[in-house]
Amino acid sequence: MVRPRSFDEDAVLEGAMGLFWRRGYDGATLEALDRATGLNRGSLYNAFGDKRGLFLASLRRYVRLEIDPAVNAVRTAPNALAALAVLFPPGTTVDRRGCLICKAAAEIAPMDPEVAEIAREAYRPLREALSEAFAASQTQRHPEHLAALVVAAYQGTKIMANAGESAEKIAKVAAGASAVVTN
Amino acid sequence: MVRPRSFDEDAVLEGAMGLFWRRGYDGATLEALDRATGLNRGSLYNAFGDKRGLFLASLRRYVRLEIDPAVNAVRTAPNALAALAVLFPPGTTVDRRGCLICKAAAEIAPMDPEVAEIAREAYRPLREALSEAFAASQTQRHPEHLAALVVAAYQGTKIMANAGESAEKIAKVAAGASAVVTN
DNA sequence: AGAGTTATTGACCGCGTAATCAATAACTGC
DNA sequence: GCAGTTATTGATTACGCGGTCAATAACTCT
After folding, report:
1. What is the rounded CA–CA span in Å between residue A55 and residue A37?
2. B94–chain A Cβ distance below 8 A for any pair
3. Are the Cβ atoms of A149 and B97 closer than 8 angstroms?
4. What mean pLDDT is predicted for residues B94-108?
C-alpha cells in the first residue's frame, strides 16, 4: 500500500552525526548533509522534518553509541580505577572532534530547550554509574561529589580536545582523577 | 592630520563580547553587532577588519577581564581551599552564558587555529597558578595533576551551565573539588 | 491489474547574511 | 585656512543558506 524507504535510517544518521560532530550545527550545510548521508534534500526533509530534526536524531544516536556504552562499562568495572580508565583510556590519541553533546551544549543549548535537555540527560547516567563505582570501592568519602567532579573534568577534556590541547595535557587530567581515587 | 575615532574601543568590545557570549559566533549577526556596539557597519569593518577580527578582539578582552583576574586571585589566595573558592564561589547563581572561551573552543577552534591557540593559552595560567597554590599548601601529592583536573572540571561546569544544569548539580562539582583538596 | 499511498528526485525560491564602496565628515599640521 | 589623511555613513551587493514543491517512482492491498 505504500512505498517503503530505500535507505537504512541508521546509516543515514551515521553520516549526519559525523558531519555535525566535525563541523558543528551551523557548519554543517544541507548540501554537505546531502553528501554525508547519501540522501537528497527532499528525502531528508521527508524523514526528519528539517535540519533541526536531523540534528536531534543525530544527538540521540550519539548518546546511544558513544555514551551509553561507557556507562555500561563503568557499571561493570571491577573497581574505581577501572571505572576511571573507561573515561580516560590510557595511551590513546586525542580526538579533536571532542564530544558532540558538549559542542551542542555550547553552541545550541542556550537557544534550544530540547537540545539543552538532551545534553543534561546524556551525562546524568554516567555520573550515577561513576558514583556507584566510587561508593562500592569504599575508599571515597563523597562518591557523588567526586563523580560530579570527574564527569565535569571529562567534559572539560573534550573542550580541550576541540582547542587542540596535547595528549600530555589531557593525560594530566586523567592522572589527577586517578590520584584522587587512589587516596 | 587625521580624523580621530569617535568611539571608545573598549566600550565597543564590551558590546560585541556580550553579544558573542550570549549568541555564539554564528548567532551574532552583523546587524545585531551594529546595535550592540553602537557602531555602524563600515566603522566596525574599518576598525576590526571583519567579523572574525571583531571576534578575536572580543576573545582577548574576555581573557583579560574574566580569566586574568581569577588567575591573580588564585595567586594571592592564602591556601588551596581559598583558591578553589575563586573558581567556584559559594552561593552564586548559574550564569547560563557559560564561558566565551569554551564556547569558542567548541564552535570555532576546530576550524580556526588562531581561535584554538587563544583558547589553549587562556586557561594555561590558571592551571599554573592553581598548581602553585596546591603545591604551597603541601597537602597534595600531585599539584600539577590536581590543578589540571580542577581546571578541566571548571570548564566542564561552564558547559553544564550552557545546558541549563542546576546550581545544585554544579555545586556538587565544587564540593568534589573541595573534598579532594581537603584530603 | 489498478487504486491508493508514500518515497524520491532535483530544480527552484526567498531571505538573511557578511562584506563593500562612494560620498561625506572630522580632524591635524603647516 | 587649506591640504592631506582617516573615520563615518548607509545604501547596496552577491551569495550561500534552509526550505519547498510538482512530478515521478515504488510499493501494497484488494
Report:
1. 13
2. no
3. no
4. 98
